[in-house]
Amino acid sequence: MSATTFTAADAPFVDTGNTAWVLAAAALVLFMTPGLALFYGGMVRTKSVLNMMMMSFIAMGTVGTVWVLWGYSETFGPDAGGGLVGNPFTHFGLSGVLDQIYGYVPANAATGTAASGGIPGAAFVAFQVVFAIIAVALVSGAIADRAKFTTWTVFTVVWATLVYFPAAHWVFAFSGYAAETGGWIANKAQGLLFGGAGAYDFAGGTAIHINAGAAGLALALVLGKRIGFKKDPMRPHNLTLVMIGAGILWFGWFGFNAGSALGAGTQAAGVWVNTLGATCTAMLGWLVVEKFRDGHATSLGAASGVVAGLVAITPACATVSPIGALIVGLAAGVGCAYAVGLKFRFGFDDSLDVVGVHLVGGLIGTILIGFLATKGSPTGTAGLAVNEGLFYGGGASQLWAQLEGALSVMVFSFVVTYLIGLVLHKTMGFRVSAEDETQGVDLAQHAETAYDLMPLGGRIGASAHTTPSATKATETTGANA
Q: For the whole prediction, is pTM greater than 0.70?
């Protein structure tokens, strides 16, 4: 059949190549949550490892469930007003979604253009739910060592419903793709306050990283400081786990960013390259800061620099050039290396530096788009329009739009999360008792320990869940640098 015989009435069809890539990318992003569990688990003390990892794992169960029920509809359902949130009932239980094909472009007989395929609704659902899961899991690092597991479990559902799904609607719900009508950041043609172009956020710098970072700060303030904060050593207990977790996160992040192209093509390939470049320079930047400031370049610094670079390039990966990506990564590596010390200066206990890495890194990447956006980016080379940034002669309009989008999500997330945390703290109790915190939340919350440190030939009949007296003597303690 020749191209000119296609008409707009041709039935939509599925592009199997694009679908295969989106499903593979979804699997990569899902793998990031266990990677995050290892990354976070290695950074806490021995007595908190399992609890820290479970806080990530439980998000897979709770958020995955509510996504099917109302989360997808709240994010991509028809806008309920003002571009703020989707209708949670339109696609409740994924009603009317699985038989859809997204991204289908009908033929144009006048130009001889053949119809192009898309991806099934189920593939889009799969790709988006893994973002929701890891966004919730990221928040947990700010309250390590001291949170009640049951309250945290309830928090994951409430926060996803009241904070993440609305923010994702703002950023990811483009009218005419999956959403009938979408969110204000995704769709506005003019900046709400300053005029000019709408904000760019390709893969979730605002909806995920700034959102999770601001939420982590709010919860850290609600729960208060750990016993011994700024007094007792609280260094990571297992840097091998941290390095493995960082490696898994880096691996999965190619699905996170390049998968957000929702197709296998020029844009996805360019995003992959930018993601690699920014992560490399971020790691180098963090290590240079450590060497200059502390005299040593550490494995924890290398892992943290990797994550900082991945966070920062997430919003910018499609709209900056490869050189721009290197700049974004370097700025994030240096900036976040210094930002993790803010908790000591201002006195808030962000246990695993969610604020210093995710909030600050997300802000750096989102704002730098206003300077570095260019037609030489993956989006531009794919033949799509790009509003150029200040350094490329585009003026300040894009910068103002980026500031608007970033600050809007940050303020919204902090305020609503603080209220959620405060209500749960007053009703259920969010923080464990001082005795349980001192003993360790693994035993107190799960009746388990991560490591059996009893010497060979120890007391016969001891429970596998009993922490031997030798545990405290051999435990490595300290705080995340």
A: yes
